[in-house]
Amino acid sequence: MCNQTTAAIHYVIVCGSYDRSRYNDRLCNALGNELAKYNIGIISGGGRPGIKVGESMNRTLSDLGQYDPFKIVTVFRKRNKGDELKTKRIGCNLFVGNDIHDIREYLFSKSRIVIVIGGAVKTK
Predict the structure, then answer these.
(1) What ranges make up the beta strands (E) of 4-91?
(2) How many CB atoms lie within 10 A of CB 56?
(3) For residue range 14-52, what is the model confidence (pLDDT) as tens digits?
(4) How far apart are CA 43 and CA 111, in angstroms?
(5) Running DSSP on this structure, what letter comes out for residue 34?
(6) β-strand 10-16 against 40-44: which pairing, if any?
(7) 20/110 Cα distance (integer angstroms)
(8) Confidence (pTM)
(9) Which value, in Å, is the radius of gyration of the alpha carbons in the chain?
(10) Burial 9-39 (b: 16+ CB within 10 A, else e)
């Protein structure tokens, strides 16, 4: 697990939510493949779009022999010792704050570019 992001990588925030849409999954897969070709990292709050783009980037970077955990950063709320994260962990995982507002503040402090992939009621 990483303690911080690296200034050498420019980060894009990938966020939003959607309900298991094959179209959106394919979109996230294509986005991750494309971002992996550049010195761009993604940082997300653990929603489905960020996870799917991260998985795609992870596969592409690994295939190219260029895997870098600092290029895929997922930010989660701090948890109690008894809580378990039910997401496959790839890249770096950070635990910041206790609510979504703390996470958003952290994400926006790391990037000026945001990609929102919507489709669910919770996407604002």
Answers:
(1) 10-16, 40-44, 72-76
(2) 23
(3) 999 888 788 999 999 999 999 999 989 999 988 899 999
(4) 8
(5) H
(6) parallel
(7) 28
(8) 0.84
(9) 14
(10) bebbbbbbbbeeeeebbebbbebbbebbeee
In the chain, the domains with their CATH numbers are 10-117 (3.40.50.450)
Confidence of residue 1 (pLDDT cuts 50, 70, 90): very low
Q: Are 32 and 52 in contact (CB under 8 A)?
A: yes
Q: What is the DSSP letter of 41?
A: E
pLDDT tens per residue, range 70-124? 999 999 888 755 555 566 778 988 888 888 899 999 999 999 899 999 887 766 5
Angle formed at CA 12 by CA 45 and CA 122, multiple of 5 degrees = 40
